[in-house]
Amino acid sequence: MHDEKDLLDSTTNDLSRRDFVAMSLAGVAAATATVSAAGRAVTETDVVIQTPDGSCDCAFIYPSTGAHAAIIIWPDAFGLRVSMREMAKRLAHEGYSVLVPNPYYRVAKSPVFGDISKFSFSNPADRTKLTPLMGSIGADGTAERDVVAFVAWLDKQKSVDPSKKIGTQGYCMGGPLVFRTAAAVPSRIGAVGSFHGGGLVTDTPNSPHLLIPKMRARLYVAVASNDDQRQPDAKDTLKAAFKKAGRSAQIEVYKSLHGWCVPDMPADANGPIYNQPEAEQAWTKLLALYKTALA
Predict the structure, then answer these.
(1) Among 14, 18, 79, 287, which one is most buried in terms of CB atoms within 10 A?
(2) Whole-model pTM over 0.70
(3) 253 SS3 class
(4) How many domains does the chain fold into?
(5) Cβ-Cβ contacts under 8 Å for 124 (sequence gap 6 or more)
(6) Domain hosting residue 204, numbered range
(7) Which neighbouring-strand residues pair with 223?
């Protein structure tokens, strides 16, 4: 079975290292909309954040009043799109100010894909579309540079309380990115959620699990059943690394398949991937983590 994890493993070591350049932080509101939920109004904006590598287009969604803990959502391989914005809105209704970056801003503006319902990881032509995109956010320090810029930008927003820790959550490809986020700015990242993250444990010198000693956050790692079957030792390696570093972490293997938390994840040959009951279970665990770690 081919999936996003296979692509991630094949792209993280193919990028040349770029020199770090001086950052200027700026946000440009391109569009603003306000939506309402029971008891809380939420504002949705499109912003641009300057990073060392260029201009990153992002969605920034937050409660319309007050200052709140911030959260960074790292999307899966299909990038910043409606389903990720809906997750951000849901968190904003819970009282968080949420940034969803376009991880592919170096090579394309969002949304990168249109209808993804017919996408197949088993189709070489479809996989070819993803390879250069995922390669642009590999393990050569790109995510770390982005995170420093994102956190600095968030801490300047009126809707963000900089006295509170920041949370971060990632899906599939975003799993390794939340590890890198927590290690890049350990003083600010207080909670991490990885959901069916691909390539958390590899045999390369830049494997995400080797960053655990640099983290100070509390972590929740939700593992897909087929990922666990393919790499059964990964969870044990993670547990050992967390224990050695003295990090607070929970690792849980779900019955669902890789991608189960994302509502618009394309079905495979056996049917739908998204599993609403287990996705809600994972969401509940995430909210509980944020409630305790981002206070």
Answers:
(1) 79
(2) yes
(3) strand
(4) 1
(5) none
(6) 4-293
(7) 253
Indicate which CATH number applies to the domain containing 66: 3.40.50.1820
Assign 171 to helix, strand or coil.
Answer: strand
Q: DSSP characters for 196-252?
A: S-S-SS-SSTT-GGGGGGG--SEEEEEE-HHHHHHSTTHHHHHHHHHHHHT--EEEE
Give the model's pLDDT for residue 74. Answer: 98
DSSP, res 268: B
User: How many Å apart are CA 127 and CA 119, to the nearest integer?
Assistant: 9
Task: Pick the closest to residue 58 from 77, 84, 78, 34 (CA basis).
Answer: 84
Two tokens, residue 165? 């820790």
Q: Are 137 and 103 in contact (CB under 8 A)?
A: yes
Q: Which residues of 130-161 are buried (b: 16+ CB within 10 A; e: fewer)?
A: beebbbbbbbbbbbbbbbbbbbebbeebebbb
Tell me the C-alpha distance between 91 and 63, whole Å: 9
| Residue appearing with tokens 């990028």 | 15
**Block mean pLDDT (10 aa), the chain, length 295:** 52 34 34 52 98 97 98 97 98 98 97 88 88 88 96 98 98 97 98 97 96 98 97 98 97 97 91 96 98 94
- Extract the tokens encoding 281: 């279970």
Rounded distance, CA 15 to CA 248, Å? 32
Q: What is the DSSP string of 18-75?
A: -------------EEEEEEETTEEEEEEEEEEEETTEEEEEEEEEESSS-B-EEEEEP
